[in-house]
Amino acid sequence: MQYWENSHAAAQNVAVLLFDGFSNHCLANTVEPMRAVNRLTGRQLFEWQFVSLDGAVVSSSSGLSVTPHSAIGGVQGDCLIVMPSYGFRAHGGGGTHRALRAAAQRFDQVIGMDTGSWLLAEAGLLDGYQATIHWEELTAFAERFPEVEVLRERYVMDHDRITCSGAMAAFDLILHLIGRDLGQALAVEVAQLFMMRDSARSHSGGATPAGRLVNRALAVMQENLEHPLTIAQVAARAGATQKTLEHRMRRELGAVPAAVYRRLRLNLVRKLVEETDLSVAEIALRAGYASPAAMTRAFREAFGTTPRALRQG
């Protein structure tokens, strides 16, 4: 059972343009949520490649070397992510600007991560757009590029341009895009996989009453996987009626509480199958199933395979 929206979505082709001095943290927070989506859905919904201006090796601010898949010239796709981070001013110049302007014609969407906004603005790719940048550079950015409407936000989405203020905000941005394009329930799964405390923060409107209620309910579910509660009990512990919880969760996550709860238990099954040597019977008990057969049926329906086949594969 797939309860995320747009479950027939085509794979999104992403190119990450790295410059010397890029942030490992920003890169990980950009790519790892996409990897998690592929793992959770069992589909390659995101395909990415690392590129540089000339195809040469690039080194992060902490010395991690990355060998790009190719140079940026000729690469095309759905989304180009520009990621210079530290020392970004040294990466400007005519060659960079021409490469960015040409690449922008080959991608449906361009994202400036961290200080990538500066290079995009220098290339004229943010003229008339709203944008943000790492907040340490915000004042200088606004003074240098008066044709850009500069906002102090974690990220700004303006048609085919997106700008993001830094590494932590990058995770929030990618979660938001996952929720927008593939459904909020899947975004919550990704957030929980990374043990994000406020798993609905980035895609359910922030600290709204509805967001807090859904988060409380998710926490109750997560704490009661081995001995599942009824949805009425979950709602009560979250401080709401069952009807209210069902309405809020359907509105925010696109799924009823029972479906979300079942998915959390099955995610635990998959984790235990892949990462432990526990027997299928023991895993069934830990995930709150009365029998291995019942667990296997639910697992096959959700993931298209059985726990034993997953472990053997």
From TrEMBL:
Could you tell me the keywords of this UniProt record? Transcription, Transcription regulation
Q: Which CDD domains match?
A: GATase1_AraC_ArgR_like
Q: Which residues form the HTH araC/xylS-type domain?
A: 215-313
InterPro entries for this protein: Class_I_gatase-like, DJ-1/PfpI, Homeodomain-like_sf, HTH_AraC, INH-QAR
Q: Coiled coil located at which positions?
A: none
Q: Which GO terms describe its molecular function?
A: DNA-binding transcription factor activity; sequence-specific DNA binding
Determine if Transcription regulation is one of this entry's keywords: yes
The record's listing under SUPFAM superfamilies reads: Class I glutamine amidotransferase-like (SSF52317), Homeodomain-like (SSF46689)
Protein name (Swiss-Prot/TrEMBL): Carnitine catabolism transcriptional activator
Annotated organism of origin: Shimia marina
Recite the lineage of the species: Bacteria, Pseudomonadati, Pseudomonadota, Alphaproteobacteria, Rhodobacterales
